[in-house]
Design brief:
By secondary structure, the protein is of the alpha/beta class. It has two domains: about 130 residues, NAD(P)-binding Rossmann-like Domain (Rossmann fold); about 180 residues, Dihydrodipicolinate Reductase, domain 2, CATH 3.30.360. The protein contains nine helices and 17 strands. It has a nine-stranded mixed beta sheet. It has a six-stranded parallel beta sheet with strand order 5-4-3-6-7-8, with helices on both faces. Helix 1 packs across helix 8, helix 5 runs antiparallel to helix 9 and helix 6 packs parallel to helix 7. The chain is globular, with a radius of gyration of 21 Å.
Length: about 375
């Protein structure tokens, strides 16, 4: 070790992480941070302290080394973290980000849906930019290993010229009066549900795979009368060069998978030289044009965690950026585009026509 506390050229520094929120999904956040060799959880804040402790214990965390408090502001000020990881409801996002910008943090990670509106999201981005703090949205689906593999295969020309990407969302968890109550009961009361809560993942993932769309069309339905928002629908991206991306979602119907929440459905990416197919178990296969046989290109090394361990991968992506200077995806300023497209999807469904996305601020121009 040299005088700067380095060994073999690599810093031994671990980034201090404070988490805010101990709801259903927080267990995946805790698990990811505990396995991240560049970070350490030093605090978890939630209004229900015992629930927060239970999340930590369930993941094997040492309660003696992690402060648990009900007051997020107090824990931020007292522990002086490098990263704040916000897994609280959207209504709390702007206030927490405002307080975090007054603290010692160099990065804020915030779950989606991000804030409650475009106006709030833009204000959060301004606050972070003025403070010189990185603000990252926890949009983890693009970090699922099969989508990284699909992008690689597209870029290396495996399927030639891309014609269309199609994802069929079929988690099978939306039937009956008790739909979602056992896991995320607030789903039932969301006035905007399928697109705002779930399909936003593919609003982003299609952009990750194929780039920026020119226009969007949507048709949305509510099939389960027990919920407030839409639970079935389609949106279509149209690209200037003729490509399309299609999201076809129905939360009441399932698909073939050992764990229907692993991929949440099935995907096809079709091109001039063949087809890529993602199944419900995370396997990516290729069939060449004119061939009758599929070749497996990729299988996930583990099906533990959420979505191919994408929460861990996103967190590591952020810590690698902070510690090693690697490129950073998912900055809130770039993620804002997903929110603008989401608004355009709902407008397209209301108007029953394609909505132009050429207006980078609002997408208000109709085709």
């Amino acid at each position: 070790m040299n005088d700067d506390g380095e060994h073999s050229g690599k810093s031994l520094k671990k980034l201090r992480v404070v988490m805010v929120g101990a709801g259903f999904f927080s267990t995946f956040h805790v698990d990811g941070w505990l396995r991240n060799d560049g970070a350490e959880i030093v605090g978890l804040a939630d209004s229900e302290v015992e629930k927060a402790r239970a999340v930590l214990v369930a993941n094997g965390a040492d309660l003696n080394s992690i402060a648990v408090q009900s007051d997020a502001l107090k824990i931020l000020r007292g522990l002086k973290p490098d990263i704040v990881d916000i897994a609280a409801p959207p209504s709390a996002h702007l206030g927490l980000i405002r307080e975090a910008t007054k603290s010692t943090v160099t990065a804020i990670i915030c779950q989606k849906p991000f804030c409650t509106s475009l106006k709030e999201a833009r204000e959060a981005i301004r606050l972070a930019a003025d403070a010189g703090i990185k603000l990252i949205v926890h949009e983890n689906f693009r970090f699922q290993p099969w989508y990284r593999a699909i992008r690689w295969e597209i870029e290396t020309g495996r399927i030639g010229e891309v014609y269309q990407a199609t994802f069929r969302l079929r988690p099978g968890d939306g039937q009956g009066k008790d739909a979602y109550l056992s896991r995320q009961p607030y789903f039932q009361k969301m006035e905007r549900f399928l697109i705002h809560e779930t399909a936003v993942h593919w609003i982003d993932t299609f952009r990750f795979l194929l780039g920026e769309p020119e226009a969007v069309f949507a048709d949305l339905r509510r099939l389960n009368p027990a919920i407030a928002g839409e639970d079935s629908g389609i949106f279509i991206y149209r690209y200037g060069d003729g490509r399309r991306a299609v999201f076809d979602g129905n939360r009441l119907v399932d698909h073939v998978a050992e764990n229907p929440r692993l991929t949440m459905g099935e995907c096809l990416v079709e091109g001039s030289k063949g087809v890529l197919a993602l199944d419900g178990n995370g396997n990516l296969s290729f069939r060449a044009l004119g061939d009758q046989h599929w070749i497996v290109l990729f299988s996930p090394r583990s099906r533990e965690g959420f979505g191919g361990d994408c929460v861990f991968e996103l967190q590591k992506h952020v810590t690698d950026h902070l510690l090693k200077g690697t490129a950073l995806e998912n900055e809130a300023s770039a993620y804002l585009r997903n929110m603008e497209i989401e608004e355009a999807v709902y407008r397209a469904a209301m108007k029953g026509r394609f909505i132009s996305l050429r207006d980078s601020q609002t997408g208000e121009n109709d085709d």
